Amino acid sequence: MNALLIHPPCEREIYQRFLGLTAPPTGLAYVAAALEGGNKVKIIDMPAEKKDITKVKKEIETFKPDILGVYCATYRVAHANQVINATKEVDANIRTIMGGPHASLLAEDVLKENPNLDAVVCGEGDMTVPELANAWDSGELAKVKGIVFRENGRIVRNPPRPLIDDLDSIPYPARHLLPMDKYRLFETFKIATMVSSRGCPYGCHYCSVSAIYGRKWRARSAKNVVDEMEHLCDNYDLDLIMFFDDNFDLDRKRTESICDEIMERGLEIPWGYESSILSTDRSHLKKLREAGCRILSYGIETTSQKSITTMKKDISTQEMKEVMDNSKELGMLRIANVILGLPGETREDVIESIKLMKELEPEYPLFFLPTPYPGTKFHDTAEKMGMIKELDWSKYTTANPIIETQEISLEEVRELNAKAYKDFYLRPSAIKNNLRMLSKFIKSGVIKPRHMPGLAYHQMKTWVWLMRM
Ligand code: B12
Ligand code: SF4
């Protein structure tokens, strides 16, 4: 059987603009790995390979897939549908499936909206997709857990698939099918991404992860994680590995075992992680640093105490300050993800958040606009209260105003967002802070002479963008 998996594009968003990030579709590569062995599998990463729908259609014609699967996050749904429609134009017999967060949360809706879509895989695809592929031929779709599909003009939902408990047992993502040389941070560092755990025990109101997977965190063992890091170092020319878990540092003991394993094996690759958990423990951060961790991306999300309570984030500003100070002292580059203008926040609260970022001084605060993703508690509340003013899913990238609250209008939140970026980044002290970090990275060999032209180009582009905001 031939299976073609496609990562569709989306509107340009903040990570691409500000951090010059092009990241691989790791979930799709996990699905590809599960399908390999007996099947011919191909992945097209449309944004990374800069392929448009005409090019993709030609590749569908030549590859002749039996099954075509598309990753579908909310902000990618229009392009995901375009791929599904193009597929059926090439050959109506190709079976089309969608997976990913948006499809998982709104399976019936996406099937109703697009008659060319045959089935949706809800949640993890590793076990479901190969089973689905086999069951189609034997006509046993009713037995496949975790799918929603069409049958005689009806939409049928099967029972859910239990989560995979033993993540060590699944194969590494099929990176050999991805254009690995295209994935970059700051447009110049060659990166690979890894997922060392899945899920999250918290239930933040705006988050799709808890809405899809419940509140269970599952982790791979330190040995299994570092085996994959070693595999990456042996097989790819990399500058950095980024852990893109939902919550990498939830179990500090496990994180420290990963650090021990890295140091015992003498792995020298710099790495970073994204986590919603902020560790205030200096000795923990020190250990991370010793094991090569150089980039921390924190989901601070909200700095206003009002929103911390309503959005179920439980981090005090004092804790944030401690983490920022400790990680700065250790020479780690800090990215802080902040949402501006959540319901209940006034203009003054937003200005307070911008001020706090200036005090905390991460190198890269990223300011997002509140975006009610379908299936979340935030979406339900915003809908009930008539806050949602933008219904086009492709705008749901967190860079566009979507909701209007009693306190802040759409126009005002747009203006405050631009103000946040300009106020923060165009200050001499922010530029000085970034130059200081740059020099630390050069001294420690993370930044090499070959990175300099790319970094300079990226910085110039960012400044032009800031001026035009
Ligand atoms: C890493 C990550 C990023 C990274 C990298 C993105 C990338 N290209 O890889 C960065 C930091 C850049 C990022 C940015 C953003 N992200 Co993000 N991100 C994630 C995160 C934490 C992990 C994704 C991941 O790799 N998971 C691990 C793999 C194994 O899981 P998976 O992708 O879900 O794949 C499994 C299943 O979905 C399924 N599957 C996946 N694809 C397919 C395809 C088919 C055909 C089938 C059948 C099944 C299937 O099988 C896979 C294996 O089990 C997710 C959270 C999450 N758990 O999804 C959020 C998440 C996807 N991001 C989200 C958002 C909102 C964004 C941003 C818009 C803004 C922001 N403020 O974060 C930007 C948009 C960037 C962009 N253009 O993609 C939301 C999306 C919500 C939604 N309803 O669509 C999520 C769910 C987070 C959340 N808290 O709600 N993100
Ligand atoms: S801590 Fe992060 S991953 Fe967990 S529920 Fe909240 S936003 Fe989602």
Written account of the structure:
By secondary structure, this protein is of the alpha/beta class. It is 43% helix and 16% strand. It folds into 2 domains: 2-157, Rossmann fold, CATH 3.40.50; 188-380 and 410-468, Alpha-Beta Barrel (TIM Barrel), CATH 3.20.20. It has helices at residues 14-19, 26-35, 46-49, 53-63, 77-90, 101-105, 107-113, 128-138, 208-213, 222-235, 252-265, 282-290, 305-310, 317-329, 347-360, 377-384, 410-425, 428-443, 452-468; strands at residues 2-7, 40-45, 67-71, 95-99, 119-121, 147-151, 154-157, 184-185, 189-194, 197-198, 218-219, 240-243, 271-275, 293-301, 333-339, 364-368. The protein has a 7-stranded mixed sheet with strand order 2-1-3-4-5-6-7, with helices on both faces. It has a 7-stranded mixed sheet with strand order 8-9-12-13-14-15-16. Strands 10-11 form a two-stranded antiparallel sheet. Helix 4 packs across helix 5 (77-90), helix 10 (222-235) packs across helix 11 and helix 11 packs parallel to helix 12. The longest helix has 17 residues, at 452-468. The chain is globular, with a radius of gyration of 22 Å. The mean pLDDT is 94. Bound molecules: cobalamin and iron/sulfur cluster (SF4). The site of cobalamin has 39 residues, from helix 2, strand 3, strand 4, helix 6 and helix 9.
